[in-house]
Amino acid sequence: IYTQNLTPDASFEKLLQEVSTYLKKDITILLVGHEPFLSELISFYLTGQRKVAIDLKKGSLCQLSLDKPSLIGRATLNWLLTPSQLRQIKPNIH
Known about the structure:
Blueprint: H1 12-24, H2 37-47, E1 61-65, E2 76-81, H3 83-89
């Protein structure tokens, strides 16, 4: 699903509301966007603040788990992989 809430000039609060809608339905979601928006979002879900420095390089991938949508600031960072790490683990397809 495309959303305008991941564009660089989007409202952070509107994105949180939209993500919360999916989390309440227990749906796994993948967000693709730009910096510093994504690292601020990760920081917010982990700590409840947007100011924690998250080194999210271009092309990185990260997974968070959240037991309940209402537990903002209590997410678990399962992993954060850089593009070079992702290249090392990709399957060797011939």
